Amino acid sequence: MILYLPAALFAVSLMAAYGTVGRQRQAATMGAVLAAGWSLALLVDPGLTAWALGPVVATLLLPRRGARARSSFEGLTRRVITIAGALLVALFLASRLPVGENPVLLSAVPWVLGALGAAWFISPIDQPERLQGQVLMVAAIAAILLAAVPAGTLSAALAGAMALMPIAGEQWRVPGRLRPALSALLLLLAATAALLAAFVSVNVVLSLFDIALNVSSAMLLGAAILLVAGAAATPIGIEWAAALGVLTLAAAAPGLRWAALAGLVAVVTTLDPRGERLAWLAAGALAMTAVLPPLAAPSWSARVQVVTLAAGLVLMLFAARAATLRVLVLPTTALAVILALGPVNAAGLVRFQWIAAVGAILIVARAALTWFLPDRSGREVLRDGLIAGLLLLAISARDALGLGELAAVLLLIDAAIVRIDDIPSPSSRWSRLVVLARSNWPGSVTFAAATITVIAALQAGLALGLLAAMLVAALQLAPLVDRHAAAPAAQRPRSALQWVGPALSIGCGIAPALVLRMLQLAR
Amino acid sequence: MPLALQALLPFIALLGAAAVVRPRPRRQGNGWIAVGATAIAGTIALVELLRLSPGEHVDVPYLTTFPYADLAIRLDGLSLAFASITLITAAALMLVRQRTRGDRRDPWAGWLLTSAATCAMILADNLLLVYIALQLLTLAWSGALDEASPRRRGLRLAVQVADLGLLLAAASAIQSVGTSAYSGVPSDTFGLATFVLVLLPVVVRIGALTVLWGGPKATVAFEPAIAWLAPAGYLLLRLLALMGGQLPDRTTAVVLFSFGVIGALVLAGMAVSERAVPRVAGLLLAAQAGLALALSTGDQALMTVASTWLWLVLVPLAGLAGVRPRDGSAPEALTLLSLAMVPGSLAFVGLWLGGLALNARGLLFAMIPVGLVVVASIIAAVGHVTVRRPRDLDVAAAWAGALVLVAAFPIVAIGTVVIPAAATVRLVPRGMISVSPFGLVTGFGSWPALAVSVVFAIVLALAGWRLQGRLPLRPRGSGSGRAYPSLLPERLRLPGLPTWSHLVLWGAFAAVVGVVAVRP
């Protein structure tokens, strides 16, 4: 009987949340969160209730208006359909992925918490509800993963604390007087990480109580990229968000890892909501890859896991067309997928390659399609789509020489750091250097990445190699189609760190062997 | 001097000169600096070639900054022959330009960088580095740092896309044997598919010759010889060398021979109907390159020597054709006659040697279409040639005369340049060709070069004297020549698609994901 109480508490809280306003609604929302925490305690371990701290605090921080918002028939119908659909999907997934021998209603509580968050995110009545929805989604991802792959109390608390990230993205900005110091610190840390990765073979697990962090050469390289992106390319004031990306790469506990990614998505989409729905869908799909092995039937778990990994990556690449998602979320996701792809067997890799190839064609075709639509304002930069396609092929190559990983890293540097700022008019030596850094000519990171992608893809298979060659051929033609440069990062005009992107491009374009050394030390 | 430094001397000369002239545009001495540096670089390459023992090759590695594209230099007969001929031709072109008045453009830095890039491509030690060098070469001659620049955009993009064939070939080698370095690639690494891929950049560069001459004329066209023909010829011969000097099978050889000869015939036919002299020169050059391609298919040492001769002489010939002639000048007449492959010309030596090789195999009939190409070329050239009494001896006239002398005395080039290059492609037995001041003697026949040159010089002189008042036989055209109708509409309109079109793509993606997930 006690096993059904969390579900009952959740149901009551749900009804109350929809039927009340103000403080009552806030209390009902907290009740839903507590119901999920209670279910975790019953499903796994009472120590996991520490997870609930983060979402409860986040809910307390979100004020609710006292008066009921005016609604229309269409709005109400949409909200009802949204919550009903979300709950159905959640119950379906919970029934297919039960935790042990527990009743479905108990296992389903974290899932339906996520469904509630998704419904409020998709059809909000106001901005606070939308924010609350993001809080619940992040919290639910952490809860589901903790139920599937239990972690320690501190890890659970930290995973739950990721639910504060949507609010942090809205309100936390680094004070102006601290930004130069923070940027310098990030660059210094990035340089240190890169040097360590280049000259020391590192593969250790650092433990802080029960929080385990994997530190390897590949992780250090990824951290360096994210820290540079955070310092040089993110919108002003949220440079700190790079730490979430680093946490995603380093965290050993899946609950913490994917919750950090979800938190990162929430932070960056507060400034520019373009692509946020797809990004959330991708984050959810990637989180599922950690849920499937312990909970799904072995006959189909491995298969679906690989497919979900690939599909999640494709969705995130498609979503990350906007500058804010591209700068931090794209490299984080891609690097996390590269790390997750390591243990996949040959059959799984073939599935991944299939989806990656079709995904590459989809992304390029989608970008090209916008040129044939009547709405001219929706035209996309074809070059960005081609870079994304090459990235998919590079990640899926996973050749014995390590060239696929190298190409992927170089493409991430290109997409996240180099192609962000406006191209100056080629009138001075500096501007010519920037033009070279962002071109396809030898010496640029794009040229090195594209060349190595073709070689790596051919190692994986003839079809992949030819597809990569066709994408590179289209890359030569893309500048004719794209009359405008990549959109500058929001709220970062004329940054003092404009030299970082071109310098990285030229450096990596001339000497990619150094990056390969970092990756080979990780093997 | 350490070999590692010796091998870098041509680059030091070229890049050093570029670094000197670039910050000081339009200065009087820039031209002489460029000429001197390029001549020094060419001389160094020639000296290295002369010092090389028969069959010797030296690989000089430096460092590895790009995976599988080690910075290393290959010194062998083929690379040094092409490097010396190309750089000497470049120096001659620069000298012609320096001596020409009236053109105020400042091409020196660009030309020096183009020469350096070509030299890098020729001396590179592995296929991936060759690909990178070709891209640098394209950047150098186009000067289009901004890729959307309209400057020769179509040509530039065609070359860049075609060069991907070489990248695929290099990737294939890396996949098979773990390297694309010349020393590490066994002769059975490359098959028919790879050969066809590498043929792409060769064919595109030859095709560029047919479109390059047109529009406003610079006094000297630098690219045809240095950026097109030299890389094309070198690339083909290098690949043949990597394949052991012969194609995968006889069928491929026959098909490629037919392709080369038919292509040459078509181009020579187009030259017959062409009015503008610059385009005639371009078409005839491309026809000659087609014949060189055809003769490259042979599996005999003498055919290899013949094709190597043709490819090597094409470079200075293209350079001479790139000099904007004064109507009726002696260089123009000599250039046209050389392009016509008349007996006594440089190209005819190669064709004769090729004919001897085919005759030895009982395949002399294969020279019939080659003969048709020569006839068509002669008709095209004679139709446009005109001669006036020369007023002064300029660089172009001296250059043209030098080429005629080399044709009359092939001893100058055969043993020093051609045979070392051919021996890199496939083994050339010692004594297979013996040379004397009067001609060549091989085991399959001889070529009395001096006698033939003298006889035809007399014939042409008599013809010129008789027809002086009636030349040119065809009225000359000016400008860019015949314009072919375009298949593209004047204003390109993109078809419109409904806004839900992207859902079709997503649906297809979802279907693929579902199939991949469900398949056992």
What attributes does this structure have?
heterodimer; A: 523 residues; mainly alpha; two-stranded antiparallel ribbon; 2 strands; B: 520 residues; three-stranded antiparallel sheet; 19 helices
| Strand line-up in the sheet with most strands of chain A | 1-2
Give the helix tally of chain B. 19
Pair of chains with the largest interface and how many residues each contributes: A-B, 55 and 44 residues
Largest sheet of chain B: 3 strands, antiparallel
Q: How many strands appear in the DSSP assignment of chain A? A: 2
- Residue stretches of chain B low in confidence (pLDDT < 50, at least 5 long) are none
Q: What level of helicity do the residues of chain A show?
A: over 70%
The class by helix and strand makeup of chain B works out as mainly alpha
Q: β content of chain B, as a range? A: under 5%
List the helices and strands of chain A in order: HHHHHHHHHEEHHHHHHHHHHHHHH
Instruction: Please identify the structural class of chain A as seen in this structure.
Output: mainly alpha
Please sum up the structure shown:
The complex is a heterodimer of chains A (523) and B (520). Chain A is an all-alpha fold.
How does this structure look, described?
With 523 residues, chain A is an all-alpha fold. Helices cover 71% and strands 2% of the residues of chain A. Chain A has 23 helices and 2 strands. Chain A has helices at 5-19, 22-43, 53-61, 73-96, 104-122, 127-148, 153-161, 165-171, 179-199, 217-232, 242-250, 254-269, 276-295, 298-319, 323-341, 346-369, 382-397, 403-418, 429-437, 445-460, 462-481, 500-510, 512-521; strands at 203-208, 211-216. Chain A has a two-stranded antiparallel sheet with strand order 1-2. In chain A, strand 1 (203-208) and strand 2 form a beta hairpin. Chain A starts with a helix and ends with a helix. The mean pLDDT of chain A is 87. Chain B has 520 residues and is mainly alpha-helical. In chain B, 64% of the residues lie in helices and 4% in strands. A 3-stranded antiparallel sheet of chain B has the order 3-4-5. Chain B has a two-stranded antiparallel sheet with strand order 1-2. In chain B, helix 10 packs parallel to helix 15 (367-384), helix 12 (301-321) packs across helix 17 (411-425) and helix 13 runs parallel beside helix 16 (395-408). The mean pLDDT of chain B is 86. The interface between A and B is large, with 55 and 44 residues.
